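Next comes a single protein record:
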Amino acid sequence: MRVVIAEDNVLLSNGLELLLTAAGFQVAAIVQDAPGFLAAVAEHRPDVTIVDVRLPPAFRDEGIHAAIEARRRHPGLPVLVLSQYVEQQYAGELVSDGRGGVGYLLKDRVSRVSEFTDALRRVAAGGTVMDPEVIAQLLTRPAHDPIAALTPREREVLGLMAEGKDNATLATRLVITENAVHKHIGNIFAKLGLSPADSGHRRVLAVLTYLSRH
């Protein structure tokens, strides 16, 4: 599985290359800025990409905008964005095109190697992976927001679902039956005005897209 990395911190990029190579990935290119990233994607056509939110020259939002532009040029390009902090606006921008194959993780997750590589593989397969800290902040909404209509248990289910957990994992984590999980998910979509159809990763993206717009 070929990977292109956009990260200006040499220590981090070298560390990513080492751990990904050890996990069976092939690092096709490491670049330090947005133009370099777009060029590397066009040249190598990677299976998945890793992009820092903030890249030279201004270290603001160059990385996320490069990721969005790359997905515009190459529809469906899997992108895993890394950030030092939770930045809700960027998380929302990432999922706003309505397609899967996206992830947003905090950089400290990289040290949990197995979790990180699993997240990267899920993104490469078209899934949606969001950092639990991002989910927690996305679920913090004003009282008038439809999210306020969810019960505490439904919020818990929604948070885990948005992380990419399947029904079986949800049932185990919450110590409830899969039937109960399915009912909670149906209630969540009904209250949010979304289709209750269980459609795998697309259900996660639907929830995240909805949250990103409010």
Remarks:
- Confidence is low (pLDDT under 50) at residues 196-201.
- The longest helix spans residues 178-192.
- The beta strands are 2-6, 26-31, 48-52, 79-83, 102-106, 128-130.
- The chain is about 50% helix and 15% strand.
